Amino acid sequence: MGYPETPPERLSNDPTHPDYHPCLVRVGIRFDGSVRSDVCRYDIKRGLIVIRSGKMHFGEVEPFWRWDESRQERRARERFDQTRGARA
């Protein structure tokens, strides 16, 4: 089945955060027109990104898929979704 056409509206790379999902490594973030590689969390509705240093930035957030997932990554994601519940 794979990922949906667009990434989730909110995502975090912190396993204790409610918006955590392991697919964040597959999501690229374009913030105010430039691609950022230091994003730890984002929220499209609020126009918010949190970078590694913990600073918050507000602006236009546009997530995109970086590449197709491998079979191993897909199986790991499906196992994660079954145990924790799918996040969309």
UniProtKB/TrEMBL annotation:
It comes from Novosphingobium mangrovi. This is DUF3297 family protein.
